[in-house]
Amino acid sequence: MKRAVFDRLQRLRRDKVPVLLVTALSGARQSLCDAHFEVVAGDALPEGIEDTLAEALVSDRSRTVTRAGTQVFVQVFNPPLRMCLVGAVHIAQRLAPMAALTGYDVVVIDPRRSFAADHRFPAVAMHKVWPDDGLRELKPDARTAIVTLTHDPKLDDPALAVALATDAFYIGSLGSKKTHAARLARLKERGFDDAALRRIHAPVGLNIGARSPAEIAVSVLAQVTQCLRGGTRP
Prior knowledge:
The protein is an alpha/beta fold. The chain has eight helices and eleven strands. It has helices at residues 3-14, 50-59, 90-101, 131-138, 153-163, 177-189, 194-197, 213-229; strands at 19-24, 30-34, 39-42, 63-67, 70-77, 81-86, 104-109, 125-127, 144-148, 170-173, 200-201. It has a six-stranded parallel sheet with strand order 8-7-6-9-10-11, sandwiched between helices. The chain has a five-stranded antiparallel sheet with strand order 3-2-1-5-4, with helices on both faces. The longest helix is centred in the C-terminal third of the chain and has 17 residues, at 213-229.
């Protein structure tokens, strides 16, 4: 690997920017590109490889393909997946360990000390601050899922306002259709248009008839996975 490519790769990984390294398995051609398939270091990309790059990014899997008679290895360097749960409630207690098992770095945000007690969330990072402040501090990116679970507009609405200004790949919010309609009206008063508000998945989770906190957590994680892997991002 050329030094310029290596140095740029290390800087981008340090900055948690998703990148792909495309290496011809014969010869010395090597390209480093970003998530928009723009070359940031090295040689030009092989022709017709964009679909493969897109699939590699979404699946999080490196692969070998043949283009124009030449084998190339596409290596994915994605930042870690993160899940920010707003509200240290019963659903969060079930969802946090499930998400961790599927590869997410989980953070629970809740300023209410009675909810955000450490013994209720063992081995989970806790931010005992107001959700909007917590999300600004965490700086959600395109590898971040945000789920608001408090059912309290004083906590959920400011968090959603911050979330909608980020590149988070998933934004979900607990509440009935009636609750969500009122939520949308409040967010419109804050200046968000319909296109922005369509990013919010609500009622949160896939419609699988979930009732218990654990079942709702399963439905939420399933919907998050669908958005991450299934190409259904808003």
